[in-house]
Every structure is written in structure tokens, then in C-alpha cells.
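subagent[fold] <- orchestrator: predict structure for attached chain, return C-alpha cells only, no commentary.
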Amino acid sequence: MKIFKSFPPHDRRRFAGLAITILSFAMLQGCALSGAGPFKGSIETDAEATVPYTVVDLSASTIAPYMRARDVAPVSHIADREVKDFRIVPGDVIKVMIADNAVEGGVFAPLSAGGTVFENVRVGADGRISLPYVGRPNLKGLTLFQVEEALSKSLAGVAIAPLVHVEMVGDMSGSVLVAGAVKTPGRFSALKGPLTLLDAINMAGGPILEPHLTNVVLRTGTSVTTLNYQQALSGSNTAIPPGSEIVLERARKRFVAMGAVGDPGLHDLPSENPSLLEVLGVVKGLREQSADPRGVFVFRLGDEDKTGARVAEVFRLDMRQPASIFLARQFLIQPEDAVYVTNAAIYEWQKIISPIVQVLVLGRTLESL
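subagent[fold] -> orchestrator:
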């Protein structure tokens, strides 16, 4: 300031004027680049840009192709529980009871005494087991009934009319693996009966995320199926074969909110078929101090056309119109949509005028020095 005061009064005024001009230009340039997106007028007039798009004004006459589907009525049928025979695989654990009908001196206990029981007999990696007097028969791929027949034949000449009963104790062959976005992932047995998709997921504690945000991948060894968990709850439950793997993962059902909204950013869709009104509620509505209610836009990159190019559409809703609330309630928001609310013109002017006033005040201060 001492250096500034050393200039003659007229030079000080010229210097102050120059400073005001430079600062005003710099701050106006900053204001021109500010904001969270394009201006309302630019969206409506720049449809012939590098990426062409179509602007659709939402009204009672244009909304029909973009409306939410009606809620599907609940179905009455249930999943068929197809019963399949377990076939022994390496790692299975079985319980074997052998009874000998000999009056005296039998190798095994008689049936009246409960027979001779071998607990927790594990099937080896080669599919074989080892039992006294039975040897090491290969049981891989056999059903429980076939295992009983095989063991009875192995005891020929050792026991008189032996009786064999086999139970599954630990079933690798009949179990189902559930992993991913569930509360208690793990392997679950089907010993109590055949499992459906919902049975297995419920055994794992259910999904961590909301149903519409959860995808289910079912691998059976011969096929892979992907469906939304909400679909399974709505009637697409199905029986799953033993040995299946079920993986739950997050569905990419998100949207981006930008501009003059209460909570901009990346958000999960609030429901399976969310409306624009629901989505605006998730982001805490329009910012009352700065939003232009006539500039509510939804940007969407649609499916490919016949030429292979993806069709871009921009939907505009004038929230000043009373009917707009009903239109927003009917308009379907799709995954990866971008909801953008422009600033009001008066707010944009305030952003420009405010720094100018600050610069003028600074100029007067400099001139008074």
C-alpha cells in the first residue's frame, strides 16, 4: 500500500481502473465456466452436436412410450421340487449298517441287535471306501440303493444273507454352494429334501442388498442362468439340482443426479420400476434457492439402431406445470440415466453480479488510498 500511495492521484485512479477491469474479466471468465452442466437453452438448441440427440418434451401426449409398467399380479404356482437320486462323489460321508443272519458266530451283529454300524465312512478321492470284510469297492457315481447292492455282493461268502443299509451323512454330491452378497455364505445340504433357489438363499441368511438390487447367478455344471432376485420372489423360483453353485452380486441399477438437486451424485434406483418422482425424492428434490423448475432433464443413451449407433434422448419436464407431478410419477427412470436440473436464470445472474460488486468495492477502496 505504501508503494501505491507514492503514485500521483491520477496514476492511482488509472491503476485502480485497470485492476478493476482485469479482475472483472477474470471473475466473469470463471463464472462462465462454473456450474454442474449445460444451460437449459443449450440443451434445447444444441441437438445437432457431435453426439446428436432428440429432445422430448414430456406431456400427456408424448409420455406413453416412456411410462412405467403396471405392477405384475402375484402368481399362484410354486416351484416344482424335482426329487433326484444322490450319486456318490469323492468327499461324501456315508453311514453303513451291515446285519448278518447267522444264528451264531456271524462276522456282523444280527439285525435284532442293530447290526454292525460303521459311522462316518468317507469316500476317497478315487471314489472308494474301506470296510472290514468288504474291501475297497468303488462307489463313485452310484446311488444309495446301488451302493447297498454293491456292498451285499462284496459280502458274498462272508456273511449269510447279509442286510445292508446306507445313509448319507455328509453330502458333497447333494449340497449347494451359496456365495457372494448373502449374510452367511457357505455350503448347504439337501439331505432333508430337494432345494429350490429361494430355499438355498434363505439358508444363507438372505441377500444383503434389496431384492431389486441383487442379481442371482445359478451354475448347475451344464448351464448358467442369471436373474434378478426380485424375479425369483415374484414367481421365478425354481428347483436346483444337487451340486449347484449360486452367486449373488450387486445389480448395476444406478442413476446419476446432477445440477440443482439436494443430493447430487451416484445413487441406487429406489425400486424395480422407479418413477422420476421417486428418483427426485431420493436426491431430496430440487434445490429451492437455485433450481429452475422448468429445466428438469433426463439424459438417456438408448439401444442401438439399425446402423449400430446408440440413440441418445433428452427428456424435459416443466415442473411449473401442475400436471408435471403426475407426469413425473408415470415416467420410468432406467439404469444409467442421468437426471439434471438446471440453475434458474436469476441464480446465474447472481453468480455473475456478485463478483462484479466485490470488484467495484475493491476499486473504491483502492481509489480512496
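orchestrator: received. Logging for downstream: The mean pLDDT is 80. The chain has four domains: 2-34+350-367, 40-71+253-345, 93-170, 176-250.
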